[in-house]
Write a structure and sequence with these properties.
Layout: H1 12-20, E1 25-30, E2 39-44, E3 46-48, E4 51-57, H2 62-68, E5 72-83, H3 85-88, E6 101-116, H4 119-133, E7 156-171, H5 178-191, H6 196-210, H7 213-218
Antiparallel strand pairs: 1-2, 1-5, 3-4, 4-7, 5-6, 6-7
Helix pairs in contact: 5-6
Amino acid sequence: MLVHPYDSAMRENEWRDWISKGARFGVLAVGAAQGQAPIMVPTHFVLRGDEILIHLHKVNDALPLLEVNKKVSLSIIGDYAFIPGTWRAKDSNNLQDGVPTSYYAAVNFECEPTVVSDPNEVAAIIQEHMTEFQADESYAAVSPEMPPYGPMMSIIRGVRLQIVKVDAKFKYDDHKPLAFRESVIAKLQDRNAHQDVGAAAQQSRRLAEIGEWSEFRSS
C-alpha cells in the first residue's frame, strides 16, 4: 500500500485505537497456486498485542493454503468517502477543474499464520472473540466439552496470525491548507451519506493534531 508521509499513522497507537473503536472486520488474503487469484476471506478478528486471532470452518478454501503459506495479509478499510472534484477546486469560480479523490483509513497486516485444531486452543480463540464482541457475557460457557460450542469444535479451526509488518494509512488531505480541510469536514457532515460522518471525524481528529502540514513536518 502506498503511504505518503502526510497520510501515514503518526504513531502505533493511532491505528490500534482506530481498530479498538470498531474496525475489527477485514479481509484475509491467502496466496494460491501460481497463476491463480488469492483466496479472500471476509472475517471478524481480534487483535491481541502483535497477534491476530480468527477462526474458520474446516472446509474453508483458505485453510490448506494457510498450512503452507509462510506469509498472508489481512486488510482493514473504513471511514471512507468519495470527495468530488468540485470540493477540491482551487478556484471557486471554476469548480470543474477540481480533481476528485477518496478518503479512507486502512491498515494492512503482513502475518505469519499458524492453524490450530486442538479443541482447547480453538475454544480459547473463540473465547477471545466472545470477550471482544459480546462483552456483556450473555452467552454459554465456551467449552470444548459442553454444548453449544463443544459439538462445533470438530468443524472449526483457529488461526493465529503473528504480525510481522504493519502499513497504516489515514488519507484525508492532511497536506492541504487548514481552511480547505475544514470546508471538506463541513461538506461531509452536511452530505451525511454512507461513512461520511466517520470520514469527517477522522479528518477532524488529524487536523487537530497535525494543523498545517508544512509546520508539523518541520517540527
